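Q: Given only this backbone (207 positions), what sequence would you predict?
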């Protein structure tokens, strides 16, 4: 890249979709092919103070008003972009981020309108736009099957009816944002290697 800045790459998908596996597989592949490239792996909710509060609500240790919860995701995102993502991009590192504001639109789509959630996320969106958004598109029933195979603790959103609504909000959000974001939808029923391969090719094209 001419300006030596890193790329901001976002990974989205339902719980159990395989997005985190794909993210980690992609990092491994890039490290093999291009050992000098620095990648900063991160996630939202973040590991900062606001992110920790969100995780308490997700595991039902505390109860919050749904709109408070929605706002907290956006607040956490702003903290994360300012304190972690932007500095890494400026250092020339690629940032691979597990979830971004699209999760807010999808998971809290039944709490506030799309316009309201977009406005909550204005502070972060004004600072940075992802170079690529990958959506790992896995049917909710398959996600549920995977969740029950690999995990003990059911989080708030890990139920199939909720996943179906979330999927609908994701797709509506992507449709409405298709002219302003670089969104790539990947078939989540492919093998992890195939998904990683496709992501790698897409990223290579925007090297
Ligand atoms: P997840 O990536 O599934 O984390 P983990 O691997 O630790 O389970 O994210 C945790 C949950 O947070 C997930 O169910 C989606 C939810 N979430 C929202 O509801 N809104 C948001 O804006 C974000 C970033 C996440």
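A: Predicted residues:
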């Amino acid at each position: 890249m001419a300006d030596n800045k890193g790329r901001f790459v976002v990974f989205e998908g339902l719980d159990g979709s395989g997005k985190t596996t794909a993210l980690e597989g992609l990092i491994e592949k890039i490290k093999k092919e291009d050992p000098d490239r620095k990648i900063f792996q991160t996630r939202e909710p973040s590991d900062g103070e606001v992110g920790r509060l969100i995780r308490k609500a997700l595991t039902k240790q505390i109860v919050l008003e749904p709109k408070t919860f929605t706002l907290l995701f956006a607040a956490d995102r702003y903290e994360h972009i300012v304190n972690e993502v932007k500095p890494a991009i400026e250092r020339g590192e690629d940032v691979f981020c597990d979830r971004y504001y699209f999760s807010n639109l999808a998971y809290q789509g039944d709490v506030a309108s799309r316009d309201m959630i977009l406005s909550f996320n204005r502070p972060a969106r004004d600072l940075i736009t992802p170079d690529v958004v990958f959506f790992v598109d896995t049917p909710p029933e398959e996600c549920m099957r995977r969740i029950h195979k690999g995990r003990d603790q059911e989080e708030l959103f890990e139920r199939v009816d909720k996943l179906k609504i979330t999927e609908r909000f994701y797709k509506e959000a992507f449709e409405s944002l298709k002219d302003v974001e670089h969104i790539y939808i990947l078939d989540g029923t492919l093998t992890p290697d195939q998904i990683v391969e496709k992501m790698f090719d897409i990223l290579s094209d925007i090297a």
